[in-house]
Each structure stands twice: as C-alpha cells, then as structure tokens.
Amino acid sequence: MNKSVFEITKMDCPSEENLIRMKLDGIANIANLDFDIANRKLTVFHTGKIDEIETSIIELNLGGKRISTEQTDQTDFAENTNQKKLLWSVLSINFAFFIIEMTTGLISKSMGLVADSLDMLADSFVYGISLFAVGGTLIKKKRIAKLAGYFQITLAIIGFAEVLRRFFGTETLPDFSTMIIVSIFALIANGICLYILQKSKSKDQAHMKASMIFTSNDVIINLGVIIAGLLVNWFSSSKPDLIIGTIVFVLVIQGAIRILKLSK
Fold this sequence. Notes:
Low-confidence stretches: 202-215
Distance between the termini: 29 Å
C-alpha cells in the first residue's frame, strides 16, 4: 500500500472535499481518502501508480500538488457510518440559507445577499450530487453535475445583468441592517457546517480551530457582505453592495465550472 500526500491550496471548505471525492470516484486503486481541510492536505492511500489520481486532482484547478509518496503498512481504515447523515445536515443548512438570503436579498434590494444565496445553493448542489448519486452509475453522476453546473451559471449571469442594471440605472439603496444581520446568521451557519463535518473526522474531537473557520471562502464572503453593509450605511451608496455582489457571482461561476468538469 502507498500513501501519497497532496497539498490542495484552494480547498477551503467541505464542498471542495466533496468535489475531489466525486472526481476521484471510480479510480479502482484508491483504498481511502483522508482530508485535512484546516491544513489543506489530502492523503490518498492507494495501490499501484499515482499518475491517474494526480492528473484528476490537478484537473480540478484547486491548486493540487503532490508533496510525497511513500509505502505504508496501514490497511485498516475506519469508515464513517454517519457520513450520509452529516451530508444531509449540511445540505439542509445550506439550502435553507439559500432561500433565506435570496428572499431577504430581494426584499432588501441587496445584490450581495442574492449573490451569497447562490453561493449557498452551489454548496447545496455539491452535497446533493454526493448524496443522490451514491450507488448510481458514473454516467448518472456526470449528468446531474452537468445540469447543476449550467443552472448555477445561468443564475449567476442573471445576477450580473441585474448588477449592471442597478449600476447604470437609478440608485436604489439596499437595507444595510438586513444585509448585516442575515450575513451574521449565514456566517454562523457556515461555521456550523464546517464544524459538523470536521468534528466527524477529528479523533480528539477538539473544538473548531480559528484556522478552520477563517480559511473558508464561504465565511470570507459572509464577512464581505457584512463590510459592504457597513459601507452602504457609511457612504449612503449602493456601490459597495454591487461590488461584493459582482465578486461573489464570479466565485459562483468558478464553482460551477468545477462542477461541470466532473461531468466530462
């Protein structure tokens, strides 16, 4: 048995973990995958050559780089029987906040909240693909990934169009207090999701480390919307909200492209 360690520089949260799992699904010589999100490391236990595994990881454009490969005597891997239950938990949280942020974003006229809701939806797609494609064929999984990716891109393009309309049209000031309050709750929700999935893998079950929380793209986005809300109030301008919305829409499209790569 061989043990190969990869550094995944853009693996910021559990949704990237699931993207990698789906990408590597079907490679017969993989015995086990051990993810360390906090340190952005992936350990692959495998037989035979590493070439196909390494190529698949690099193709995801998550900054994957092999650090080492060595032999190991480890052959017994503890399976997490609660993994499916945990995925359902984080999917439910993400989808619930997609609805909450989309609704409050439209009501408060905040493109930052609308964009962040799509980021939540993107994570829901990843968890959903992992769940609904379990036991299914590779073709079925690729078909689901393709539909999810194109749907995500379509929503992001509609969002971009609305940002442009508001930027060049009559300025409508979003409700900054709604932006801040909802984003704080979304920040807590993302922290809970990360905690749930990381705790399930932690042998000492230590509490969430700061590095686990603040390396997450999702959390950074939430903080960005909070700051945008403060700037909207400070400058009495919608521009900060439109800027953060644009940034998040770009991230949503990047995530959609990664999902589409799974369908190839």
